[in-house]
What we know:
It is a single chain. This protein is α+β, with helices and mostly antiparallel strands. The chain has a single domain (10-65), classed as CATH 3.30.1390.20. Helix content is 27%, strand content 24%. The protein has helices spanning 24-32, 48-56, and strands at 10-15, 41-45, 61-65. A three-stranded antiparallel β-sheet has the order 2-1-3, with no helix packed on it. 15% of the residues are buried.
Amino acid sequence: MARKKSKGKTVFVTLRRSPLGTSGRHQGTVRALGLRRIRQTVEHGDTPQLRGMLAKVAHLVEIEER
Length: 66
């Protein structure tokens, strides 16, 4: 299935630190972002919900906007 081009911004999120040793809520947020292993990068559309999730785990991830 081909991805549709959206007109909004795209955010690339890379897991830089392990969520082990953090709270269960932070671990769940990392999983909900689609991140499974360190140095894995996922692409998301820029939404307020995504920004809230990223703010919660900002110490674990690297964010790149395009």
